[in-house]
Amino acid sequence: MSDITKVYGACPHDCPDTCGVITEVENGRAVKFYGDPDNKITDGWLCAKVRPYLDHVYHPDRLTHPLRRTNSKTEKATWAQISWDEAIKTITDRWQKIIAEHGAEAILPYSFSGTLGMLHMEVVSGRFWNRMGASQLERSICGAAGETGVNLTVGARRGIPYDAVMHSKTVLIWGHNPVSTAPHFMPWLKKAQKNGTTVIVIDPRRTRTAKGADWHLMPKPGTDGALALGLAQIIITSGWHDEAWLEANTVGWPKFRAHVAQYTAEKTADTTGISVADLQKLAQLYAQNTPSILKFADGVQRHKNGGQTVRALASLPALIGQYGVLGGGLGYSASGYLQWDGETANKWGEIAHPPTRIVNMNRLGAALTGEIQDPPLQSLYVFGANPMAATPNVNLIRQGLEREDMFTVVHDLFMTDTAEMADIVLPAAGQLEKIDLHRAYGHTQITLNEPAIPPLGECKSDWDVMRLLATGMGYNDPWLQEDGEAIVADMLLATAETYPALKGVTLKKMRTAKSAIPVAHDTGIPFADLQFLTPSGKVELYSEQAIAHGIDPLPTYYPAVDETAGEEDGFSLNLISGAAHHFVTTSFGNSQKMIAREGEPFIEIHPDDAAVRQITHGARVEVSNQRGSIPLKAVVTDGVRRGVVVSPKGRWSNLSGGHNINVLTPDATADLAGQSTYHTNRVWVKPL
Ligand SMILES: Nc1nc2c(c(=O)[nH]1)N[C@H]1C(S)=C(S)[C@@H](COP(=O)(O)OP(=O)(O)OC[C@H]3O[C@@H](n4cnc5c(=O)[nH]c(N)nc54)[C@H](O)[C@@H]3O)O[C@H]1N2
Ligand SMILES: Nc1nc2c(c(=O)[nH]1)N[C@H]1C(S)=C(S)[C@@H](COP(=O)(O)OP(=O)(O)OC[C@H]3O[C@@H](n4cnc5c(=O)[nH]c(N)nc54)[C@H](O)[C@@H]3O)O[C@H]1N2
Ligand code: SF4
Ligand SMILES: [Mo]
Fold first, then answer.
1. pLDDT at residue 106, as a whole number
2. Cis status of the peptide bond prior to 375, with omega within 30 of 0
């Protein structure tokens, strides 16, 4: 009889739930994989994407050896297998040359959310690159404006716990699709709804979440700031606001009140496309049927005006005194509770040179093709990211990567669209093959991920590769050679210095506990003490800090305009490309099971918009703008607003005949924090 061992871990994917997972291992091979029944959030079940995870782990296309490209980057790639020694020597020799000629800032590491692990997302993006003096990446592809906007308003991202909705009478889900993107929130929401909670969804698309709501409103994209300020105006003129609360707990209430007077119901209806009657009804439900939660996520802020949109949204709970109330408040990210100790991740204190320049990741194509000079970029090292499929304006990125003098290294589990543009490809160890430590952005548990199986083939973890690269570069600092387990142990201790709730949570304790450990340092009601973490300690409706960020101190609405794509022709449509149900951005985009469930790449279009273009349901259409063009299948449906088309992110163009939505998306940045603007995107759709 062979032994089966159970190994506890964390789902590493970019999802707020950060599920606890259990792998059963027999003779060094993972044979079973499932959700941890003792994890309060996971509750023993996993989403459709991750349930068949062992297919992903043992996928026949896993890279298992380092590869060197043998032809030009303008041709379809051909490869020769090489040893790790040769790979590391090729890379470090080239980097030494680049550094001698141009300086280390000519090298750019590009990584994002392939894994959310402390070690393989944060430490690997810090220590080695800071020692080298490489360019830094402005990590603003996802929720930078939302995070900054919430921080400016209440001081920290302390979203409500999922189960708080059990105490709500109204839940407003705004530009968020949790059925797909935060599945473990849904059982709580369903239970609440059964008990009489009213669930309202605000989204230009009838998402899976909208289908289950009591009421679904479809505003024009990018007008949510106006919608929030218009609701504020109705609430104030109706006297539904909480004057005493506002006086005691906010900064700038009189200014805010005077400012929002301009957002009359009629004007708001015109801007947003939502009728005055619906605005009235929405304002009344939200303000009077309390406790009420406003829950939003990052989709709504991926617009040119995303920062101010979030400032407006985050003001609403204050207006009706709902911060600090059980069943009320703001449901955004919970990532502002615990943050891993920055010094342990980055070792800035050990580094002699001043911080280096920062390159906005949304501008990757522009940066590679001349926007960045002194020195121009000469090398890109990509890990835990797939910019040729996930980053905006892919055709420009392609141009940059086709440069003869650009030296590109990609470390991934698979031959992604990005890996196909590399000079050297390195095989990455997956989550079951390495240690890591996880916090979450949807809750406040931390989870240890123990390695369950040895790395496949010659795969190596990102941290192990950083150690080899450090040796290859001749960097002798001991903190570049620490082993992963030691870093996990150190990180827990270092973080506990500033985050008291973590005191006593050592690596040993986590190993004994196996399951996730809750580390919230409040009662579970964010801001129950009404101490906000802004400079004033109050909710800042008027924010002095906002001025330093280059935006108006009061939440303000201005239209989100895709300046490059000629809106004036009157015939372009607003393309929204949010999350696909069966992929996590492009992760799982190569799973046959998930591709089959997602179906053929499609674009949803309203019947009226289809009719004037002679587009029929199921027809092949060309979707294009100044940036590029792709073929898609038309799905004619009133599940999208007139003027709006929807085609989810996540396809690999090398597996789907070039269906990469990001050849169309703009690389313009938003009003705040260098945020991506995927959804401020005009396209033309015509029959093929
Ligand atoms: N299944 C799955 N889960 C995922 C991901 C995935 O790709 N697939 N991605 C992960 C990542 S990286 C993130 S950041 C989160 C994102 O989580 P969410 O923000 O929940 O997901 P999105 O689909 O990006 O955006 C949510 C909704 O915003 C809507 N939206 C877009 N523009 C507007 C607008 O102007 N106004 C309003 N009101 N709504 C608008 C879209 O139609 C979409 O339904 O999900 C994570 N989870
Ligand atoms: N059109 C459109 N595009 C979008 C968005 C959108 O809403 N619309 N959303 C944006 C958002 S919110 C985000 S967060 C980004 C995400 O974009 P990315 O961060 O680029 O995420 P993925 O596309 O999932 O690619 C992650 C890659 O990392 C690899 N990987 C996984 N684990 C590891 C590991 O341990 N080590 C290494 N070396 N590699 C690993 C995976 O195989 C995968 O190829 O996409 C953005 N792209
Ligand atoms: S993707 Fe999200 S819901 Fe699915 S297993 Fe991972 S953490 Fe859980
Ligand atoms: Mo994201």
1. 98
2. yes
- Ligand 4: centre distance to CA 143 (Å): 7
Mutation pick for ligand 2 pocket among 125, 383, 386 (CB with most ligand atoms within 8 Å)? 386
Q: Ligand 2: which of 61, 122, 140, 141 to mutate, most ligand atoms within 8 Å of CB?
A: 141
Which position has the token pair 């890996």?
419
pLDDT digits (tens, 9 = 90+) for 50-78: 999 999 999 999 999 999 999 999 999 99
Whether residues 580 and 679 fall in one domain: yes
Q: How far is the CA of 429 from the centre of ligand 2 (A)?
A: 16
Whether 294 lines ligand 1, by a CB cut-off of 6 Å, is no
Nearest to 396 by CA among 651, 660, 576, 663: 663
Same domain, 168 and 33: no
Judge whether 99 lies within some domain: yes
Q: Kindly state whether residues 284 and 210 are assigned to the same domain.
A: yes
**Does residue 562 sit within a domain?**
no
Going from the C-alpha of 353 to that of each of 134, 343, 375, the distances in angstroms are 11, 15, 17
Is residue 1 pLDDT above 60, yes or no? no
- The last residue of one of the domains, among 300, 332, 364, is 332
What gap in Å lies between CA 404 and CA 366, rounded to an integer?
Answer: 16
119 token code pair: 């070690």
Whether residues 287 and 311 fall in one domain: yes
Picking from 448, 477, 506, the residue at the C-terminal end of a domain is 477
401 lies in the same domain as 473: yes
The type of residue at 90 is T
Which atom belonging to ligand 2 lies closest to the Cα atom of 676?
10
Structural domain harbouring 252: 160-332
Does residue 105 carry a pLDDT above 80?
yes
Ligand found nearest the CA of 217: 1
Same domain, 305 and 364: no
Ligand nearest to the CA of 178: 1
Q: Is 50 in the pocket of ligand 3 (CB under 6 A)?
A: yes
Mean pLDDT of the chain: 97
Residue 386: CB within 6 Å of ligand 2? yes
CATH number of 131's domain: 3.40.50.740
Contact present, 687 and 621 (Cβ < 8 Å): yes
Residue of 53, 413, 660, 680 to test ligand 2 pocket, by largest number of atoms within 8 Å of CB: 413
CATH of the domain at 16: 2.20.25.90
Is the CB of residue 384 below 6 angstroms from any atom belonging to ligand 2? yes
Looking at the CA of residue 583, tell me the nearest atom of ligand 2. 24
DSSP letter (8 states) at residue 119: I
For a pLDDT cut of 90, what percent of the chain falls above it? 97
Residue nearest to atom 8 of ligand 3 (CA): 19
Cβ of 540 below 6 Å from ligand 1: no
Look at residue 565 and tell me whether its pLDDT is greater than 70: no
pLDDT digits (tens, 9 = 90+) for 510-557: 999 999 999 988 888 999 999 999 999 999 999 999 999 999 999 999
Q: Is residue 509 part of a domain?
A: no
Measure the CA–CA gap between 231 and 217, rounded to whole angstroms. Answer: 14
The alpha carbon of 658 is separated from its chain's Cα centroid by a whole number of angstroms, namely 24
Question: Are residues 170 and 315 both part of a single domain?
Answer: yes
Residue 522 lies in a domain: no
Task: Evaluate whether 46 touches 35 at the Cβ level (below 8 Å).
Answer: yes
Check if the beta carbon of residue 660 is closer than 8 Å to that of residue 416.
Answer: no
Ligand 1 in contact with 203 (CB < 6 A)? yes
- Tell me which ligand sits closest to the C-alpha of residue 297: 1
Domain count, the chain: 4
Backbone φ, ψ for residue 387 (5° rounding): -60, -30
Q: For residue 223, which atom of ligand 1 is closest to its CA?
A: 35
Together in a domain, 356 and 305: no
| CATH (domain of 185) | 3.40.228.10
Query: In CATH, what number is assigned to the domain containing residue 637?
Result: 2.40.40.20
Q: Where are the beta strands (DSSP E) in 13-106?
A: 20-26, 29-35, 67-69, 79-81
Express each pLDDT in 382-391 by its tens digit: 999 999 999 9
Q: Is the CB of 678 under 6 A from ligand 2?
A: yes
